[in-house]
Amino acid sequence: MAPPWIQELHLNSLTIPVTIINKFSVTPSKPIPVKPGDSLYLSNLDDMIGARVFTPTVYFYQSDTSGGTFQKPVTEILRRSLADVLVPYYPLSGRLRETKNGKLEVFFGQELEGALMVEARTNIALSELGDFAAPNPCWEPLIFKFPNEEQYKVLEMPLVIAQVTLFTCGGFSLGLRLCHCICDGMGAMQFLGAWAATAKAGTLVTEPEPCWNREVFKPRDPPEVKFPHMEFMRIDERSNLTMKLWKTKPVQKCYRINREFQNQLKSLAQPFDDAGCTTFDAMAAHIWRSWVKALDVKPLDYQLRLTFSVNARQKLKNPALKEGFYGNVVCIACTTSNVSELVNGKLPETTLWVREARQNVTEEYLRSTVDYVEVDRPKQLEFGGKLTITQWTRFSIYTCADFGWGKPIYAGPIDLTPTPQVCVFLPEGEGDCSNGSMIVCICLPESAANKFTQALLIDSLST
After folding, report:
1. Does residue 321 carry a pLDDT above 60?
2. In the chain, is it the N or the C terminus that has fewer CB atoms within a 10 Å radius of its CB?
3. What is the DSSP letter of 110?
């Protein structure tokens, strides 16, 4: 019988009929310090190939219980507050373009194009969506995409795309797409928090004041690449991993992991050097092993990679980042193993590899990353032998997203299946992980889902 501290969450399958009522550009409500033809520098951390994406998130808000519907006009309040917050966050009202060497920059055309806001309606109530504990790919219609939009397109796109969908019960959702080239997760929370606080107060609120200053991450002259940067290396796909994930339609599986399980796992995962580990180290190691075992990856000597983002803000001393910096300050940590060593080894060994990869991200590693991208700018995402774990548990996403209608009943991503080699750790519910539980979301072919569930529940805990 499954231990009570792990629970698989079953996602409702449904169709959400959405009718778009209006689309309009949102430009800064006051003059901004750029003129037509100006451009802004993006660092190589902003311009890494993995950042050339939009990060979609959705936020659900219940109706005002006092009257059954919101007394304030939702779309108009969100539009006005976005226009206000785009004054200090004016780079988000520009567009991206490539320069002659393929590097991206923010530019401002003859007419300021601004963000895009979409107003939509649906003929169902929020209650019909079912459980809000975990992201559901069926919520995809709540995020606006252009007709025939190319995957990973960022050039000449609005850098903020917001869809407000009104439900029959009086509740609404905010589907948001932010360009990752402009902000990482912490930066996105800062922008979202400013927008929400401005909407709630009815006047501009920016604490802290946003700081652009991407030049702080300019490459050295000449560049000095001091690490191998396996996170960027091309690995030929000679395993069955890609075929299992990309040529069969994967399913999104979500699990609620209680604090008790995390603590027990962390105790069992302690590396043999007695230097300890974090809960993330233990969870990442356990998920990676369970995923590879469930997929039954062959051949056994095939080289695998686990990558994950590390926030390097606190590691920067020369110089320290200014408060309010909202650009990308993440490095991609990477550890490697062949299939046999990973699935036949012990959990503490894998945890040690994860811990070492995390600790290897220093200020010098970040500078080396900037220089590596300058010397050999990757042109496409590399998926060979890779699982990427993204940690959202430290984001105060529920607190940041109170626009005046209370905290959302769900805040986070929607659909991982377009990039099935990504796993996400999410906080559970509006407490922003106050009870210590997390939601783990991962993609698997249907044929491997049960094996993964069993490996997750009992596999490494008995070693």
Report:
1. yes
2. N
3. S
